[in-house]
DNA sequence: TTTTATTGATTGATGCGTCAATAAAAAATA
DNA sequence: TATTTTTTATTGACGCATCAATCAATAAAA
């Protein structure tokens, strides 16, 4: 059976299995055997490629993060105006790929785990910082600096909050209404600023 | 040593110990021994009073929830106007007692745990519902029904989001600025509505 | 023959939940 | 009031299950 060049395929399969396992269990205490089983390999192989369980979890987190960043930069590339840049960032966060039960459960679980693990916390800080600066890349051209910072904070908080409510499967059932909520806030703040000018 | 009437004292001490243990560890996987140790008793006693670990966690969650509800009703009682009612609900959520690292870590951990445990999920649904209707108790008198619902959703999401960001100890360092963010949103929406009228 | 892929079996640790044992208070009985 | 009995409080020790991590063994490529 052993065919060479399996490593990248197995790594990817194990990471995918980790996300779906976390999504189904709803928490990070999934076993290595559970994950490995989903990926169709033995738990020993998972250890072979990733070392400790925490390393696999960190790799999964990094994967989630880099997917989000990739999608975001792609969306930003085609955004023509500052206003469109802000909407692009928002829509990526609520895209089908991101705003899915398994993905959200994984994010939530990682937030909790980050309390313990400094490595994970660093990764989440990076995420928060990127989200902020991506939002600012549009807002800074629409509002005075201080207001832009303020609106970026509030928008980021709203996005995180909507993720949580989605995890609870209560209120805000779909991505469209979540986007509408955030966009409405933005529109309100922008028109308020325009009036003041 | 055995003195009669220990039960309520022990129960309370164990629940407090659970919160602080979760706060320090940052997650729900604290051991019964750890909790019992903090409460100054053996793990066997914790089992004696609460049964399974999950029961202790559920009791802790219920305690957190009922404290929040008690504080909220107290704050609502002294609120004179509809506008004051909304502010009252917000300020309770960011009060010293609620917006504390240990409490927030516990809430976050419970959100994750709720994915697995239907009992906990029910409790969190109750919390979300109460928060919503408490906000509505003021908003319904300030805005048309549909707008009020919308603003209540957004406010609730913002509150949850700010909790998460607090848990990460990143951005929004203190309660005051968190309140300012939410109040600013509210004020903006209310004045927008007033102008439209 | 060396490297890469893979696993079953095993080990060691951890932690929940139980149980029998101890002791002090309260209640019942003499 | 003195005693026995029952109830309440409490724990150390232990069984049992789970799981992460290791390792020796197998087999196909290079």
Describe this structure in words.
The structure is a homodimer of 197-residue chains. With 197 residues, chain A is mainly α. Chain A has a domain at 60-196: Tetracycline Repressor, domain 2, CATH 1.10.357.10. Chain A is built from nine helices and no strands. In chain A, helix 4 packs antiparallel against helix 5 (82-93), helix 6 (101-116) packs across helix 7 and helix 6 packs across helix 8 (145-167). Chain A starts with 6 loop residues before the first helix and ends with a helix. The model of chain A has no long low-confidence stretch (mean pLDDT 92). The A-B interface holds A 25-29, 105, 108-109, 111-116, 121, 124-125, 128-129, 132, 150, 153-154, 156-162, 164-165, 167-168, 170-172, 181, 184-185, 188-189, 192 and B 25-29, 105, 108-109, 111-116, 121, 124-125, 128-129, 132, 150, 153-154, 156-162, 164-165, 167-168, 170-172, 181, 184-185, 188-189, 192. Chain A binds a DNA duplex (30 and 30 nucleotides) through helix 3.
